[in-house]
Each structure stands twice: as C-alpha cells, then as structure tokens.
Amino acid sequence: MSWLEVIVLGVIQGLTEFLPVSSSGHLRIASELFFDRDPGAAFTAVAQLGTEAAVIVYFAKDIWRLFTTWVRGFRDAQVRRTDDYRLAWLVIIGSIPIAVLGVLFKTQIETVARNLWLVATTLIVFGVLLGLAERFGRQTKPIERITVRDGVLLGFAQAMALIPGVSRSGGTITAGLALGLNRPAIVRYSFLLAIPSVFGAGLFTLPDVFAGDGPSGIQMLVAVVVAFVVGYAAIAWLLKFVQNNTVYVFVAYRIALGVALLAALSIGAISAT
Q1: How far apart are alpha carbons 221 and 169 in whole angstroms?
Q2: Does pTM top 0.85 for this prediction?
Q3: Is residue 96 classed exposed, middle or buried when 0-12, 13-18 and 19+ CB atoms within 10 A define those classes?
Q4: pLDDT category, 210, cuts 50, 70, 90?
C-alpha cells in the first residue's frame, strides 16, 4: 500500500465516519476508483479507531460522567434512577447486535458485502429511508427519553452498517428519527453508541490488516492519526449543522453517488469486486 493511498483513505475515513453517507462505502469506492484495489474490511475497521478516538476526546467529560455513574449505580439504588445510568446501559445494550452479527458474518462482510453493486444499492435505498425518516419523524424526543426498546432497535440499525454503503451513523440517525428522536439527540447518541462497537471491531480485526500486501504498521498508525484529526473537526461541524438543518443534503448526496456508481459499473468504468 502506498503512502498516498494511506493518507487519502485516512482523510476520507475522518470526513465520512460521522456523516450519514457511509465511510466504509466511500473507502471502498475511492480505493477501487483511484488505486484499483480494495483495502479490505480490516483496514476500514482499524482506521475507524482514529475517528472513535476523536469521539472519546471530544466527549471525554460526557463519557467519564456516564462511566462513573454506571459504576456507582451497582451499589447505589438512587444513582440507578438517573438518566445517565440508564443511558450508559442503553449504550451497552445497543452495542450488542453489531458485535454478535459482526462475528457471525465476518466472512461475508469481508467478501460479498464489499461488492460495489451492493454498495451502490445500499447508498440509494438507505438514502431514501433517511429522507423519509426526516420527513415523517416527529423529532420531539430528547436523548433522556430513549427507552430500552429504542436502544435495541438503534443497535440493530447500527449493525446494518456492517454492509458498506449503509452507514453506521446513517442507520442510527434514520432509525432515531423514525422513533421520534430529535436530530441533536440521535446524533449525540450515535456517537456514544459507536465507541464500544468500533473499538471492538478494530481490535478484533487488527491481526488481519497486515496480511498480504496491506499497510505496514507505521502506515496504519498514520492512517489512524489522520482519521483522528479530520474526524475531530467533522464531529464539531456535524453537531452544529444538525441544530438548524435537515439531513436532506445527505439524502441527495447518497442518491447521486449511488446512481453515479451504478452508471460507472454499468459501462465497465469501475470493477465491482
């Protein structure tokens, strides 16, 4: 893997991880288009460690408060009645589906799920679903009102991102809007929900990333650092953006990219595998 490829993919990972446009889909498309190769699901999973480190730094106070509240709740019944204690458990519960499905379907995720015909289709289909959720979701529920049922459903929505093109944040934002959560609430919860699953996936696939003609250790480290820096800026931008804007711009982008990819595949300008 060349240094140019490492840096470009690190930037793409940082830019797209938190937007509802699918970072894994963009990495897959960019790699095939510009470098004529697939970096693999393992590279994507490990590169995400950089963007999730950005989440931890950005939300350090919130994460520490939730963690300490969760620990205190084991011995203090009064703490167990707080919103923070419940939210901490919902993050844990919501992380279970993607962990289980990721292990069960590891082979399929690394092979057939990376076909660009599938990526193009999921970009369009889940873009339409995101638009419908924005249009018809009530958007009245704050983050404190997320229920256990919501947490489980959002966890399965996040798990859909095991298929490149779906988008982890896009899946959770779509489901959250459909469940009545407001945009700032679901985006914030999406960030928190990603931490256990993404770190778990990154560590789980770390041995695979250096197999074959993949990146060296120092190249992978640089990709993670680049993704961290760009991702940190993307978090700040997205949180500000969703306060006063709809997600329709992402809907339009996803559909346009999916249609363009289908056209490129149809004329043989890019290989699907």
Answers
A1: 24
A2: yes
A3: middle
A4: low
